[in-house]
Structure formats: C-alpha cells, structure tokens
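Here is the promised in-class demo. Please do not try to memorize the tokens; focus on the logic of going from shape to residues.
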C-alpha cells in the first residue's frame, strides 16, 4: 500500500485500510467503517467513495512542486497549471479543483463546446488560463472569443491549420482580439500506452511548415501579437522521464524559434503525461512511472531555462495540463463479494467399488503423489482427463464417473501446485496452475460501467480488501463482475516485481461481508463507463475527514433502472402500461397477486440496477 498510495491511504493497526487525505500525520478514517455505516443507512453497493480533500491536496502538491523547482533554478517566470476537464467532468471534481487552484491561478482546459460551457461558469482566478483544445466549429470559436470579451483569459489552441482562418474571421466579426495557442506536433514520443499521441503521426497539432504559414498569415494581418501560447502533448501516462525531457527540449527550442520569428509567446504548455504509479514499482512499466512529481517539475523548469538562456530569450510561463495525476487518487470503488465460484476437488472423495478403470487409476494417482513424483503424476492425471473426455463423447463413461475424474484431476492439480511452490523453482508448465485453481469471487459491479479502462486497455489498478489486513490471506482469486459478459473480470493484478494472475484474498466468513477497494480510479474511469447490460451509474459518497472522524457531505444515489432503460429509447410509462395490460388479461393470477406484481414492477423501474440484498 505505501508504494502506490502516495500518502493518501495506509493500513491501520486493526488491519483496516484507512484514508489519510492530509498525509500520514493528519486525520484518518477507516474505509471499512465508512462502507459499513453506509450499508447500515441502507445505501446499496457498489459505491464510489470520493475524497475531495485528496483532489485539493493534489492541486496544491503539483503547484508547490513547481514553485519549489522555480525557486531552486531561479527561473524567471511562473507556473500555471491547467486541468483538462475531459479527465473527469463531474461537478464535484471540477469545482473542487477550481477552488483549490484559485490561489495558484490554476486554470481549466476544454476539449469541446459543452466542456467550455461548463468552464466559463467557474469562479477562477482572473489570470487563470482557459484553454480551448480539440477540433472546433464556428460556435466553439465564438463561445471562446465571447469568453475573452467577458474578461476571461481564454486561449484558443489551433489543433489544425484550417482553424486559424476561422478564428481570424470570427474575431473580426466580434471585435475581439484573440489569444491564440499553437499546438506543435512533437517529433518526440512518449512511452507506455499512449506513445502514439506524440510523434509525427499524432492526430493533433501543426507541422513545422504549417506553423511558419500561420506565423506569416498572422504577421500579414498585423496579428502576430495574438500568439500567446505554444502547446504540445506527448501522451498520457508517460512512464519514462527521459521521454519527457526529450519532449521539453524540443518544445522549448520551438518556443525560442517562434520568439525569433517575432511571435510574443508567453506561455509554454507541455500538456499532460505526468504519470501515476499505479503499481508502486517506480519503473517505466506502463502502470508505473520512473520519476517523482518533484523530479518532473524540476526537469521541466531546468530544461526550459537552459534552452531559453542559451538563446537569450525570456523564460516563458510554464503550463502543464495534468489530469490523471490530479484526479486518480481521489476516488475508491468499493465492491462487495457476493459469491465464490470454486473449482472442484476440495471435497472428500470416496472411491466407489464399481469405479471405471480410468477413475480408479485417478484415485491411485491422488494417493501416490509426493515431492518426488508430482510432475509425473500430474502429467498422468492430465492425460487421464483427456481420456475421460473422449470416453464421454463416445458414450462409454457415465456422468457420475466423469464428475469424479474431474474432481480428482483438480485434487491432484492442487497437490501438485502445493508441492511445486514448496520448491524454489516450480517448472514453467505449472505456472498456469495457480490461475486454474483460483477461486472466482463474484463482485457486485460492472467492469464496463465502473472500470472501462481495465477492459479496454488492460489498465491495472491496486485492489485491496478493506479489512483483515493483519491476517494472512489463504486463498488466491480472480474477480468477476455480474454482467453477462465473460470479459467482465480481473485476472491481472499489480505486484511490485511482476504482474500477478491472481489476488491473495481471505477465506470468506459466513455472515460477514467482504469488501474490496479498487484504488486510483478517479481519472477517466468516472466518465468513460457505459451501461452494458443496463447496469447504470453507481451511487457515490462524498466524504471529508477531520480530527472528529469522517463526514458524508453528500450521497448521490445511483442511476435508477428507469433512467438506463429510457436511454435505450423506451418510455417507462409505456412499459408499465404494456405490463399492466398483460397482468389484467391473465386468468392465472389472483387479484391480490396482480396488485402485488404491478407494485413490484413499478418498484423495479425506480430501483438500483445492481444486485440487492
Ligand atoms: N492535455 C491533452 C491535450 C491531452 O490530450 C491529455 C490527455 O491525453 C491531457 C492533457 C491529460 O493528460 P494526463 O491525464 O496524462 O495528465
């Protein structure tokens, strides 16, 4: 936990996972207690716990890291952060970041008209930048320019050359002097999953010939002074600091060159990419980062300063658009285990006197397995398993015998794994055994709704039981969701030195609830999810922590079934009418049954879409 938690979570002395939004010395609360209390209040699971204090802390940490770096290297300009709202547009998220960022003039970035519409209404510091990225139509440009006219520091980033002519035309129409940003297509590429966001084949940005054309066009129109910002983005989750440094050098050189062409660029925007160390390994692995926040800030400041000083150009105001690093830590998805699917073979097996010879042989193998012969026994059991399947297909073995053979195979496999693990170097062919023998914990959630990146791009998140962390886990498990989709599962888990196929978990105790927290889910997951199988948005609790304990500031109930059904084009009253007609015409139901059923149907339409007790 300490490796990935960035000081926001820890294991308490009672074995419960705790949240510490102000770091380890500050107030804390047990996540297990919060969830248990929510349940006692009748709130159903799954639930998302949101900690706005963590969001605010991340905004401060980012700005302070740059402040320190600027001081350290005697950099002659400031830092201005920008939060790209696409990373999580939820109201609580945007408003919390805007508030925490106000003292630092932290701004917001829009990638669409709708995003700009919500940003223009935020109470930002007057100098905070509002950047408009993404492809733009006339209305987007008009909205941005009107924002500028209203006194906001709106910068329109040109993502492609053709946008320039439109910006110039509409600015003239509205009588506004635009602030223009130019997105430069970096040659340098990031590292990790989003490598292709940078480089020459990137979707966004102007090539160098296009930049020259833009400068010439603006100069001819007497508008060179409108170029305020140079922008680039090397990709999200850049795991290797060397790639970042390379990109900074390239963009800083481009800044210098633009200044030499007479463009009075003031802001140098290095985009996103500041990575989150999801697995805590501090490596360039795609779920990690081989650098710290301080190192990131220092490298950006130092390299920019070095390049500018080399050419005698003023230091630009440094801008970054960190989204993931600001939001990832603040939310925890809490899942409840509702069932366990166990492979056979843990039950005691009696050998029947009339067992089929292959089954009798399996019993012999199970009795004879030892540290000396386990590989050989496992091979024999494996081929017996195939034989039984062939016999079954030919109708030569009964279902009962086949079931026994299957249980025995798993029994032998378990013993094999146990013996192999006791040796230092288990044979390669046994590696899959652990996964085959793992329990499947059925968790009440939809991966497609709550963790779309886990499915779409194999993103890994830390997953930890919320209690019993002072007890050695005795089972290995994979996790499955409740969608009717076999892709709805977790079978890759983080580990400091490896990727695990199974998660160590505790033996469930009858009558006791077992909760798993999925951590670092605050970036992108909140807004990319879909309603596969009509599982809707889950309920969420906004939690603050102080010396007196925790407080649920707000509970946002999950989407009702009616809402998700309506999204598919149905009208809930039409559905209810059709069902009522069916019920009325039934000759089998008593009037009381009819009434009760209609009531239940109406209740379902306004109910939670997940499994309920
Ligand atoms: N800026 C731009 C232009 C982006 O495309 C992105 C995301 O890919 C970001 C910023 C945010 O990046 P991150 O979440 O890695 O900070």
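The designed amino acids, position by position:
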């Amino acid at each position: 936990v300490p490796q990935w938690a960035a000081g926001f979570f820890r294991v308490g002395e009672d074995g419960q996972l705790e949240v510490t939004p102000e770091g380890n010395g500050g107030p804390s609360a047990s996540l297990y207690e919060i969830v248990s209390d929510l349940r006692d209040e009748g709130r159903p699971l799954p639930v998302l716990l949101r900690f706005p204090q963590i969001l605010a802390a991340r905004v401060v940490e980012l700005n302070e890291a740059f402040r320190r770096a600027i001081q350290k290297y005697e950099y002659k300009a400031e830092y201005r952060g920008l939060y790209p709202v696409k990373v999580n547009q939820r109201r609580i998220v945007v408003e919390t970041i805007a508030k925490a960022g106000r003292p630092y003039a932290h701004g917001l970035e829009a990638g669409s008209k709708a995003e700009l519409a919500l940003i223009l209404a935020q109470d930002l510091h007057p100098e905070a930048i509002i950047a408009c990225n993404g492809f733009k139509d006339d209305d987007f440009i008009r909205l941005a320019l009107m924002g500028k006219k209203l006194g906001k520091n709106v910068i329109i980033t040109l993502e492609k050359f053709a946008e320039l002519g439109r910006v110039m035309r509409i600015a003239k129409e509205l009588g506004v002097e635009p602030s223009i940003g130019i997105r430069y297509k970096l040659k340098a590429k990031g590292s990790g999953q989003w490598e292709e966001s940078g480089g020459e084949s990137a979707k966004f940005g102007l090539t160098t010939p296009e930049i020259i054309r833009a400068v010439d066009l603006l100069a001819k129109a007497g508008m060179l002074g409108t170029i305020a910002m140079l922008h680039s983005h090397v990709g999200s989750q850049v795991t290797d600091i060397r790639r970042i440094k390379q990109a900074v050098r390239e963009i800083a050189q481009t800044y210098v060159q633009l200044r030499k062409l007479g463009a009075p660029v003031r802001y140098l925007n290095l985009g996103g990419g500041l990575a989150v160390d999801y697995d805590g390994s501090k490596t360039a692995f795609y779920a990690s980062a081989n650098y710290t926040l301080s190192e990131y800030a220092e490298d950006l400041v130092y390299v920019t300063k070095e390049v500018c000083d080399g050419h005698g150009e003023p230091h630009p105001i440094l801008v970054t658009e960190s989204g993931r690093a600001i939001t990832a830590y603040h939310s925890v998805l809490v899942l409840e285990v509702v069932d366990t699917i166990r492979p056979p073979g843990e039950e005691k097996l009696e050998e029947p006197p009339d067992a089929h010879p292959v089954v009798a042989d399996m019993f012999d193998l199970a009795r004879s397995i030892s540290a000396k012969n386990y590989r050989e026994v496992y091979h024999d059991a494996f081929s017996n398993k195939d034989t039984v399947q062939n016999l079954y297909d030919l109708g030569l073995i009964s279902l009962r015998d086949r079931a026994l053979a299957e249980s025995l195979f798993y029994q032998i496999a378990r013993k094999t794994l146990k013996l192999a693990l006791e040796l230092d170097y288990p044979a390669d062919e046994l590696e899959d055994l652990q996964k085959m023998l793992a329990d499947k914990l059925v968790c009440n959630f939809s991966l497609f709704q709550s963790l779309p990146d886990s499915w779409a791009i194999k993103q890994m998140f830390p997953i930890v039981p919320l209690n019993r962390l002072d007890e050695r886990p005795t089972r290995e498990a994979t996790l499955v969701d409740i969608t009717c989709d076999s892709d709805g599962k977790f079978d890759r888990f983080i580990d400091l030195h490896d990727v695990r196929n199974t998660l160590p978990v505790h033996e469930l105790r009858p009558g006791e609830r077992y909760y798993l927290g999925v951590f670092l889910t605050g970036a992108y997951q909140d807004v990319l999810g879909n309603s596969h199988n009509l599982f809707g948005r889950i309920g969420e609790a906004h939690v603050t922590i102080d010396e007196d304990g925790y407080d649920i500031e707000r509970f946002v109930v999950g989407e009702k079934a009616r809402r998700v059904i309506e999204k598919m084009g149905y009208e809930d009253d039409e559905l209810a009418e059709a069902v009522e007609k069916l019920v009325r015409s039934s000759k089998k139901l008593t009037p009381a049954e009819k009434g009760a059923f209609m009531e239940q149907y109406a209740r379902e339409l306004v109910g939670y879409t997940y499994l309920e007790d």
